[in-house]
Write a structure and sequence with these properties.
The protein is of the alpha/beta class. It contains 13 helices and 17 strands. It folds into two domains: about 120 residues, Aspartate Aminotransferase, domain 1, CATH 3.90.1150; about 240 residues, Aspartate Aminotransferase, domain 2. A hairpin with a 2-residue loop joins strand 13 and strand 14. The longest helix has 22 residues. It binds pyridoxal-5'-phosphate.
Amino acid sequence: MITPVMPTYARYELSLERGEGVYVYGTDGRRYLDFAAGIAVDSLGHCHPSLVDALKKQAETLWHVSNLYNIPGQERMAERLVANTFADAVFFNNSGGEAVEMGFKMMRKYHAANGQPERFRVISVEGAFHGRSLACIAAGNQEKHTAGFGPLVDGFDQVAFGNLNEMRGAITRETAGIVIEPVQGEGGIRPVDPDYMKAMREIADEFGLLLMFDEVQSGVGRTGKLYAHEHSGVAPDILASAKGLGGGFPVGATLATEKVAAAMTAGSHGSTFGGNPLAMAVGNAVLDVVLADGFLDQVNEIAAYLDAQMNDLVSRHDGILSGVRGVGLIKGLKCRKEGQNGDLVKACIAEGLLSVPAGDNVMRLVPPLIITNEHVDEAIGMLDSACLAVAGKAG
Ligand SMILES: *Cc1c(COP(=O)(O)O)cnc(C)c1O
């Protein structure tokens, strides 16, 4: 018989009931060090005092009003994102998929508004993950996400990751833009080379295409910059943000330059919940912390320590691990044998450490941005034991 909760997830035998800082507590009475962070969502850990405070205050003031009215918290959050990024305007939504989907709509609208409605196709790269809406799975183009959901939304072309010739070759008079994650998350923690980022910008400019960065996972301080693309010095025309932006409260945002945003006239797009007072209170509280002087420096410091410890871990367990991937606090451990990433995640749960599998046989570590060296040491200790357990099973 089917469970009341639709069986779309293969869930671990673990129920979590409470969180505090970088730890979560299971109904089994055990404490877990949370390097999964709700898949890069709990950017400031669990129940961060200033987020709790902001949420409580707003809960007693005003939860929701329609976007038919001005929402001061939304104006404030938009102004802050504009002041701290390439963007000139922001639209708030509730999830990563929505933020990306809106980006696709904006690409079409921009070209239509500029007299080229025939330009609607979007180029994505292999291994991409852009969310689960019909357009997003068409862009991601992964069999495990598209099977049974055909026909796929028209207008998406995929090229090999890192192959600029193929990207150029895929451009036609119908191409509207390019979408890419500056650090591929689900695809296996694969950072895009800065030179490749620059070349994509040049290609986009040469052919009049819009460049969109999906920073749903890599954004909001995760890589040590507010957004990961800043490492390359290349700016997009459109950016999708979500996951860490609300620190656990559903907040998504689509950011754009003025030339793109100008096409989104009144009535062209909307969201009932997007940017409501409750979401904006928490979102602004996240920005208070992430934009504070020195916060990102701290992220970079702890990330360097984690990276060094992970590299040592790989050298101690090179029978099952082949390398470290990632930037800042979006890290991956590449496993040697197919499926060992999943085994390692399970072995870590047994040790008391939460992590997330990713594609390309990678085990992903996306801890809260507030971890300390002690948390890293604790995680590495549990990873050592987990690696021994997995190696023992394999040997
Ligand atoms: C998680 C993710 C999404 C989808 O976000 P949802 O909030 O699940 O809709 C899109 N793109 C990237 C890069 C992601 O990591």
